[in-house]
Amino acid sequence: MSLAERYKESIALTAQSRKVTPYGAQTASKQPSRFSEGAYPAYLQQGDGARVQDVDGNWYVDYIVGLGAVPLGYNHAAVNEAIQLQLERGLISASLPTPLEEELASRLVKIIPCAADQGQVRFVKTGSEACAAAVRIARRATGRDLVIVVGYHGWHDWVMVTANPHPGIPDAYSGSFPMKAYPEAMDYSPLVMRVPYNDVECIAALMRVYKVAAVMLEPTLLEPPKENYLSDVVTLCTLHGAVSIFDEMVTGFRWARSGGQEYFGVVPDLGVYGKGLANGCPLACVVGPERFLRYADVISGTFGGECLSLAAAGAVLDAYDPKGQSYYVDGPGILDPNPIYLQWTYGNQLLDFCKELHIPNTGYAVHPKITYTGAEMALFLQETARRGLLMHPAGLNISAALTSEDMDLTYRALKGAKEAMEAKVPLEGIIPPTSLFRRNT
């Protein structure tokens, strides 16, 4: 069967969808052009465990995992049960707060280190919204405007003004702070400055010149932090009266239950979480001490207390903490494997496969990235999908729902794809434009 026939419904739906949906998907990282279009599935119709089925009926072991949002796997029994029980109670969003808000917030402040001092939580729906909320809180708390960012923090104007170009964002957001000593600190605006990861001296230099409201960074993504980098950033913020914010969208519920601050043992002022918090349901939050969250009164939305997602998140916390203990890869022995342990275990197994088969990669076991580029990456995606793997060129995520059978299939698919690439099989799909690989999930 040709790949055009294998993906007949995906190809037809792509053409139809582009008529009514910009680029054929509601999320930029999921649009068909991000992959080997024409030789890759474009739309899914169901999932179970670590596997998903496309609209043509083909099944895959999924290493995209909803862009990291479904770490417990699809159709998770306990999460489904919590949603169903809540749904039977009536409204998805109540006219007044429900006890679910307090219950989930109380659980989160007990497990997230930055909330240890009279912690509070503000719930929102998306990671971009949570990052914007944290910045609003920091600016109110400090009375300052300038925010330093390290990494990707959503699509909103306040941070995407640092992208070049940034169409649709008013010119009033943009500007230039000349930093001749640090030319790598690029893309300035009067309100936000982007600096490279692992360059604490750049942050220190900026703080000597400007009054900074906050530094927001991902604790890590693919590159490990240099020794003392995270703690030095937090210390600098404390010394200069700025707010340190860890964006834990990717690291939370993956590196460790509460993310980078738990895994690396460095506690910021605020943390923002989303993605895996409700295993696919739309929920994100800002977490921190009351002395900062008192400024969250202006952050408000109709669906902040949406009940199904709160109920799902409660089931997620149960799954990560069945015995009141938190484990990660370097933790104690585990009788009933915790999802963090499973993600690290299966991720390390995947990296072992890549090493044996000489498939180039970088990153962590729980979030690796295959580093082929251009036509090679398009061919790799084409050939792994042909053999039953769903992978993303910008990075992979590991599901705790993976099984030994899934890993056996993964090895066979990677081996077959590598052999096909070495045999120089023809590329039947379209090479994704390089410009699409900037993170914009």
Order of strands, widest sheet? 4-10-9-8-7-5-6
Percent helix, as a range, is 25-40%
Kindly give the count of domains: 2
Helix-strand pattern: HHEEEHHHEHEHEHEHEHEEHHHEEHEH
Going by CATH, what is the homologous superfamily of the largest domain? Answer: Type I PLP-dependent aspartate aminotransferase-like (Major domain)
Instruction: Examine the secondary-structure arrangement and name the CATH architecture of the largest domain.
Output: 3-Layer(aba) Sandwich
Counting DSSP H or I runs of 4 or more residues, the number of helices is: 15
- Round the Cα radius of gyration to an integer and report it: 22 Å
Structural class: alpha/beta
Bin the strand percentage. 5-15%
Rounded to the nearest angstrom, the distance between the terminal CA atoms is 33 Å
Whole-number average pLDDT?
91
Query: Main beta sheet: strand number and arrangement?
Result: 7 strands, mixed
Net shape? globular
**Quick one: how many beta strands?**
13
CATH fold call of the largest domain: Aspartate Aminotransferase, domain 2
- Please write the CATH class name of the largest domain: Alpha Beta
Low-confidence stretches: 175-189, 324-335
